[in-house]
Amino acid sequence: MKAIRVHTLGGPEALQLEDLPTPQPGAGEILIQVEAVGVNFIDVYQRKGLYKVATPFTPGQEAAGTIAALGPDVIGFRVGDRVACYHAGLAAYAAFALAPVDRVIQLPDGVSAPQGAAVMLQGMTAHYLAISTYPLKPGDTCLVHAAAGGVGLLLCQIAKRRGARVIGTVSTDAKATLAREAGADDVIRYTEQDFEVELKRITGGAGVQVIYDSVGQTTFDRGLRSLARRGMMVLFGQSSGPVGPLDPQLLNQRGSLYLTRPTLAHYVATRNELVGRAGELFTWVQDGSLRLRIEHQFPLARAGDAHRELEARRTTGKVLLIP
Question: What are phi and psi of 33, to 5 degrees?
């Protein structure tokens, strides 16, 4: 089968297309013929070595497709079933991927493989951020950085479902339009405006209850200054680089703030959590109340180009690879 391999950490050129043996499922495993692969910043972090993974490796933590084979003890699934999967060790940048049975869920009718791949990692991330990490409620105001990105567009929509006021940051007018269409009440062009100054203006100096920050280094300090008393900084990415060391006393000085650094794996640690989050998202996709933007699809061989576009922030919505 064709698969992307990383032998040496580095730039997008490290993503090499190779021929590998098609894996065979063992006990508790399902072999998925991959139809769509989600591209995420965690793949970039691993390729660069910011998140440690032993080389050589095949990136990719989310995919959707059809079941090609089942391990000898697997029940509840059949060959040919349409499925999606999120798993940290999935190795999804490939024509076939092996998945633990407890990380695989059925795709319901009306949800395509590209939609399934678009929902698993980024959709469940937006879900846990708005519903579990800081459970938004009517009267809350939240700031969503990178509001036109894959997580951002979904997070804006879910935040509005929760009754919150949503403020988004974006880099261009086109992205501002997308953020507003996703439910952002106010949009800040961070390339032209200081979001800290604008937040104070928009909130009358009160600040926001929560900031969902996937950017990291360039936004973190100003974000802490933009939170309301006892507000929460939710740092769930570092697209601009890692945040430096922090004196916890700063949280006290800024208003008894909360700081968390969550990751999806801890919010879908059990199968019930995984099925519950993904199932709710799929229901929203089916009834049209959650809109997915899948604008960027690349052949598997162009995984490097997909990473370049993602890192350059030239993408909106979900980026997929199609084996």
Answer: -80, 115
Residues 234 and 142: beta-carbon distance below 8 Å = no
ω into residue 56 within 30 of 0, thus cis?
yes
Q: Which of 218, 171, 287 is nearest to 179 (CA)?
A: 171
What is the model's pLDDT at position 238? 87
Which CATH number describes the domain made up of 138-261? 3.40.50.720
Q: What CATH number labels 2-121+271-322?
A: 3.90.180.10
Please, what is the Cα angle at 169 between 166 and 172, to 5 degrees? 130
Structure tokens at 125: 């991330």
List every span in the chain annotated with CATH 3.40.50.720: 138-261
Token pair belonging to 50 = 């910011």
Total-model pTM: 0.93
3-23 tens-digit pLDDT: 999 999 999 999 999 999 999
Beta strands 294-299; 258-260: pairing state: unpaired
- Give the CA distances from residue 147 to residues 186, 250, 309, in Å, rounded to whole numbers and listed in that order: 11, 27, 17
3-state secondary structure 16-76: EEEECCCCCCCCCEEEEEEEEEEECHHHHHHHHCCCCCCCCECCCCEEEEEEEEECCCCCC
